[in-house]
Write a structure and sequence with these properties.
The protein is α/β, with parallel strands linked by helices and 453 residues long. It has helices at 11-23, 34-43, 60-70, 85-93, 108-130, 143-155, 172-181, 200-208, 225-228, 244-256, 282-287, 293-299, 313-331, 340-348, 354-368, 381-385, 405-419, 424-431, 435-444, and strands at residues 3-7, 27-31, 48-52, 75-81, 98-102, 162-165, 190-194, 209-210, 222-223, 233-237, 258-259, 268-269, 273-278, 302-305, 337-338, 373-374. The strands form five sheets. Strands 2-1-3-4-5 form a five-stranded parallel beta sheet, sandwiched between helices. A five-stranded parallel beta sheet has the order 7-10-13-6-14. A hairpin with an 8-residue loop joins strand 11 and strand 12 (268-269). Helix 2 (34-43) runs parallel beside helix 3. The longest helix has 23 residues, at 108-130.
């Protein structure tokens, strides 16, 4: 599942990390000094290293530099003392993936969330570097997708702002992943937020962070996503849904590369690559005053448009076989082909949900198939009827502004869970979070893992 090195001269902390991680199935080794850590890295490959800031023989940030120089693919998380946020910022400058503060972040939930996110990051980097296609999971042979690949070749090596435009389900996040993980910033964090999924106050506090006492419920300092994305990339999904006043603040950050946490007067300099996406026509969004014109010109240095699946039928058969192969392997099913009738039904359907809908339909078909071939009856009824099912697009209920920020976050999570019928993966996507982060927030707010009876 992952090989993790813990570098800390306090045995109790090292042992705590070992216990938490080994219980989840990770391979863990501890080192009490920088010299011992370097010896472990010489002896074996490691996926992730937790490095204490203060070690008996070397500064932790210097050790991160040495570890990264010896094993460029190794991800490092620096452990800092409470209140040493500036050191955490310096750790990112040195190439650290993230940092944790003692004692606030030393909970099992926080540790496991950081590990899950870091290993997912590494998996995507490795897959893009050595996968079957130049851009890993992005599949397509149509002229429209070849144009996308050509643009990815161009933008992956430069630091230009990129706007990704496409209908829901076309794969905008996969393209954003490709931009980051094929770029020189691949070793940095890739931070994502869905601007349509959270109330205005939550988006602002997530982006800018806040100081203790900045508002009711702010019981400790919290770094924002601008800081988390330092030396990496930031994806703002559904940018046209961001409130107008917050768009103005974002524009200032992009122009000055400085921002302030809520409740402070100190400027923090940041260096991140901005990727944005929208399922709207951006020019129409500007005309409708949904998207500021000056912000639009700032974020669309390069625009990548992803055509809907109905406009690139030559990709449909390729994607269908790709998903059948993938899900047959994932679920241990002997399915290897699509029957003629099922294939005709797939080709005759318009796929309003695009690639995401095709993916879900074929996973279902693989699961229910009784032989080595998918039959027409294994497909969802909407596909076999040849027309899409009407799906309600009702927005979640408004969250009362009288609630404090913590309560608003809890309500946003509960609404996302209800909207997705308590499917945690879908709820996390709706909120613009990684699934481990959603689990962590659910535990923080006392939200059960299953819908209450």
């Amino acid at each position: 599942m992952g090989r993790i090195l813990v570098v800390d001269d306090e045995e109790s902390i090292a042992d705590s990390f070992r216990a938490v991680l080994q219980e989840e199935g990770y391979t863990v080794r501890t080192a009490g000094s920088a010299a011992r850590a370097m010896a472990e890295v010489e002896r074996a490959e490691w996926d992730l290293a937790f490095v204490d800031l203060v070690l008996p023989d070397m500064d932790g940030i210097e050790l991160v530099k040495k570890l990264k120089a010896r094993r460029p693919g190794l991800l490092a998380v620096v452990i800092t003392a409470h209140g040493s946020g500036s050191k955490g910022f310096a750790a990112r400058e040195a190439g650290a993936y993230a940092f944790l503060e003692k004692p606030d972040d030393m909970t099992p939930a926080k540790i496991l969330t950081v590990v899950a996110n870091a290993l997912e990051h590494k998996r995507l980097v490795d897959r893009l570097a050595g996968g079957p296609g130049r851009y890993g999971p992005i599949v397509g042979r149509s002229a429209q997708m070849q144009k996308v690949f050509d643009l990815l070749d161009t933008v992956s090596s430069v630091d230009a702002n990129v706007l990704i435009v496409g209908e829901s389900g076309t794969g905008k996040e996969l393209v954003a992943n490709a931009i980051h993980y094929a770029s020189p910033r691949a070793d940095g964090s890739f931070i994502k937020i869905n601007c349509a999924a959270l109330p205005k106050d939550l988006i602002e506090s997530e982006l800018f962070g806040y100081a203790k006492g900045a508002f009711t419920g702010a019981t400790a300092d919290k770094p924002g996503l601008f800081e988390e994305a330092h030396r990496g990339s930031l994806l703002l999904d559904e940018i046209a849904e961001m409130p107008a006043d917050l768009q103005a603040k974002l524009l200032r950050v992009l122009e000055d590369r400085k921002f302030r946490r809520l409740g402070t007067s100190r400027d923090i300099e940041v260096d991140f690559r901005l990727v944005t996406s929208t399922n709207r026509d951006p020019e129409a969004a500007v005309r409708e005053l949904k998207l500021r014109e000056d912000l639009y010109y700032r974020i669309n240095t390069v625009t990548i448009r992803i055509a809907p699946l109905r406009e690139r039928p030559e990709d449909l058969s390729l994607l269908a076989q790709h998903f059948v192969t993938r899900f047959a392997e994932k679920h241990g099913k002997p399915v290897s082909a699509i029957g003629a009738d099922a294939y005709q039904a797939i080709l005759g359907y318009t796929w309003p949900g695009n690639v995401r809908e095709l993916e879900h339909a074929l996973e279902r078909a693989v699961l229910v198939a009784r032989g080595s071939e998918i039959a027409v009856g294994d497909l969802p009824e909407a596909v076999t009827r040849g027309r899409p099912v009407e799906v309600s697009a009702a927005k979640p209920d408004a969250i009362p502004t009288t609630l404090n920020l913590e309560e608003r976050e809890r309500q946003a999570i509960l609404q996302a869970l209800e909207t997705t019928n308590w499917n945690k993966q879908a709820a996390a996507a709706l909120l613009g979070l990684h699934r481990p982060t959603l689990y962590s927030k659910m535990r923080k707010h006392g939200i059960p893992q299953k819908r209450p009876a």
